Every structure is written in C-alpha cells, then in structure tokens.
Amino acid sequence: MLPHSASLHIGLLGAGRVASLLGPALVKAGHRVVFVWSRTTAAAAALAAQLPGAQAITVLTAPLPAADIYLLAVPDSAVAPLLAATNWPPSALVAHLAGALPLSVFNGRPTVRGGVFYPLQTFSPGRAIDWRTVPLCIEASDLAAETTLLNLAASLSQHVLRLDSAQRLKLHVAAVFANNFTNHLLGIANALLAEAGLPAALLAPLVRETVDKALANPPFSVQTGPAVRRDAPTLVAHEAALAEHPAWQALYAQLTASIQAQL
Predict the structure, then answer these.
(1) Which domain-ending residue is among 139, 163, 187?
(2) Which of 6, 17, 97, 165 is positioned for an S-S bond with 123, CB 3.0–4.6 A?
C-alpha cells in the first residue's frame, strides 16, 4: 500500500481481460480508480463494482471525471478512434497499454499528453497475475508524464523499463513468438496426442524442462531433436505422420528449416 500522498486517481477505459486484472491491482497498490468506461455498459458496471469508489460511465462526449491518468485498456485498433471521440480534460495524461502501437498515435492531439503503460504479460480469465513480476514498459511525450507513469508502474511492479516505440515493437514481436506461437504449437501437440488416444499430461515434464533449459541458456545453443541431428529418416516419417494435416505438415517443414538455418 502506498502512502496517501503517492496515491493517484485513475480513469480506466476498458473492462476486458487486462482491465479486469489491472483495476483491482491498482486499488491494492493504493490508487483510486475514479471511473470505468466500456462499450458494454454491463461490463463497466461489473468492474466498477469491484473497485471501491469507482463509477461506471457510458458517455465519453461529456467532460470526463478528473483523474491524474487515463489508461486505455482497449484493443489496439480502438485507441485512435477512442482518442478522437473522447472529451478529454485539458492537458490530460492518457496512456495506452499496447505493445505494438507507437507513441505517435497521440500526434495531432495537442490537448492530450500521451504515454504508454505496456504490461508484458498474457492475460486470461480466471488466471491470477503477480504484478510484482510483470515487466511494465513506459514511454511518454514529456518528462512530467514519464515521471507519473514511472511512479505508477513502480507501485505495481519490481520490473519497470523505459522503452521507445521501436524497442517496444521488437519486444512485442518477441513476446508473440515466446507466448502466442508457443501456445499454438502446444495446442497442435495436444491435438496429435488426442488423435493417438494419449493424455496431454505426457508432455508436461518435457515442456517444463524445455522452458527451464531455454531460460537458463541461450535457446539456440540447447536445441535438440531430429532437425539438429539432420535425421532425415525421422523427419520424413514425421512429415508422413502429418499427412492428414497439411497445414501442420508445412509448419513442421518450415520450423525444421529454420532450426537447421541456425546451426
């Protein structure tokens, strides 16, 4: 809990997966969420009910309630339209939470002080987040805005970074490989096991060791498998086993080629 003098008043625009986890974390850190807005009235009301003192609002064209920071926890494609449609207070500090969206999205809006408050984490319903471990990436249009965002980030996380838009974009691409693509590949693996009548739990020790090893070493240096061994008979057998799944077969061949290109 922060001392009262460090508490910030926050407007939260969005009530989806990120906002529903971020809102309570902000309150726990000693801040006050003044209001919640969402395109879905019921979602805004449900989240606001969990945040003491917060109100749900439905109209953005009327003057917004005063806040130290307005956080845009909305899809990337909704940020620019939301900026244009909202009646922001003069010199409002507005920060989006997107990984791939540049700070320049705020260009042409001189009455708004733009910023970025990007949490490097995957958010899913029913999954608790330890915000102390989540890297929070900050960028801002001016020093005062940066200081406010850094202070907010430090109240939540032990890992706060200043990153410019180009760095954050590269980080976001890396995160997609590490998280989204890996999860998709695990989904394919589970589907193949299910076809063979085998439990997904069989892969759990292998997956854990793979991740642990990749975190402890440069991943390319600890690559194993038939692609590294250039085990042509096994590679051919694997591709034949994927004949009923041509898209997965093509992906297998492409990943094999990528692995061998790193040798």
Answers:
(1) 163
(2) 17
